[in-house]
Structures are given as structure tokens and as C-alpha cells.
Amino acid sequence: MRSALYLEGGAVGADSKELQIRCREGFRRLLEKSGFEGRMPRLHACGSHGAAFDDFKIGHAEKSAGDYVAMWIDSEDPLADLEATWKHLKGRDNWTKPAGATDDQVLFMTTCMESLIVADRDALNKHYGDKLQDSALPSPIDLESRARHEIQDALFRATRNCTNAYAKGKRFFEVPAKLTADTLEQYLPSYVRSRRILNEKL
Q1: Residue 159 and residue 134: Cα distance in Å, rounded?
Q2: Does residue 170 register a pLDDT over 70?
Q3: 44: Cβ–Cβ under 8 A, 6 or more apart, which residues?
Q4: Nearest by Cα to 124 from 184, 69, 77
Q5: How many CA atoms lie within 13 A of 16 on its CB side?
Q6: pTM for the whole thing?
Q7: Residue 15 has pLDDT above 70, yes or no
Q8: What is the mean pLDDT of residues 98-104?
Q9: CA–CA separation, 33 vs 41, rounded Å?
Q10: pLDDT per residue over 39-97, tens digit each?
């Protein structure tokens, strides 16, 4: 059986190869901490939201019976139904579900990758140090009900005085590798779902 996971992240451009490596490494380490060491899917850092979908469609079309091919992307907006992934993508992005695709082939970072980071305060404090402004961060309770820009802007503000201040790009993917799976499960229903599905499929 072959398994592949198409990740939103690792932008295109002059630094694209390095960013893709950092993206894959950050998520590889998070998945290992989540219990998938030794049964890791092949990770593809695709860049943008739309690029991840385009790459997923190719992987889905080429997969053999028994293979598991999925994408792990931002939901961009809060979800009305965590399990109705293709309905959400149709309504928000006007994406048409590929023939034969199922809801468990879409894993969401609801509403954005920064939700994972903001949920784990211990990892944040260890990574950013004593200049992290915790008071600028939203509560991890009901974090997935918040707009992605609210979460992203809060992370910018909370780390603005840190020497390694949050930024999209090279620094960003250092943080997912330091997250704790059990903490994410405590606060993020989308992560609970992703971990459950990957346990079933890998």
C-alpha cells in the first residue's frame, strides 16, 4: 500500500526548495510525535491552498486500490460540519470533488496552520522565549471558531518583540516540529479527526 499526504505550505519562489524541505520536515516530526513513526506517508509540500488541491487531484487519479492519498490544508473559514469536508470546499472555494474521492481524504488545519501553533502554549513559550506576549494570543478554547486572520495577526503581535518573531517562510516551519500531539487534541477537534483518520489509514 502507498500513502501520500499533500500539504499546504512551502511557498513557491526563489526559496521554494528550501521552504518545501522545511515544511516536510516540520510536519514529519509532528506526525512522528503523533504516533506515525514507521508508517509515515510520503509528504509533499505543495505551496498554496489551490496548489495542494491540484497536486492532490493528480495523486488521487494515479492511486491504486488500497492506497491512501489525502491533502492536509487550511479550511480558511470555520467549519459547519467537521466531517463534511468536500461540502465545505465546494461552498467556500467552489472545488469539485474528484470522482471517487471521500471526505476522509481531506484533513483540515482549521482554520489555518497557525491554529496548531497557537493551541500549544508550552511549545510557543519554549520556542519564542520570555519576550512572547501571551496576553496577545486568543484563548485556545474554541480556537477553531475564530477567523484565520485573527489567529495569524495575534501570533504576529505576540511575537513581535522576539528575536525569532513569527513570519511566514523559513522560520515558520520550525514550530510544528515542537508541538505536542496530546495538547493539540485537547483543543483542536480538526486535529483529533486528522489523527483518527491517519491511524485508520496508515
Answers
A1: 9
A2: no
A3: 4, 5, 6, 7, 24, 55, 59
A4: 184
A5: 10
A6: 0.93
A7: no
A8: 97
A9: 14
A10: 999 999 998 899 999 999 999 999 999 999 999 999 999 999 999 999 999 999 999 99
C-alpha cell belonging to residue 193: 479527526
Question: Which residues are CB-contacts of 6 (< 8 A; sequence separation ≥ 6)?
Answer: 44, 46, 52, 55, 56, 59, 69, 70, 71, 72, 73
Helix axes 85-93, 49-62, angle to 10 degrees: 130
Instruction: Give the helix/strand (H/E) hosting 189.
Output: helix 189-201
Q: What is the mean pLDDT of residues 4-24?
A: 78
End-to-end CA distance of the chain: give it in Å, rounded. Answer: 9
Q: Which residue has cell 510536519?
A: 27
Q: Which three cell numbers stand for residue 83?
A: 466531517
Amino acid at site 136: A
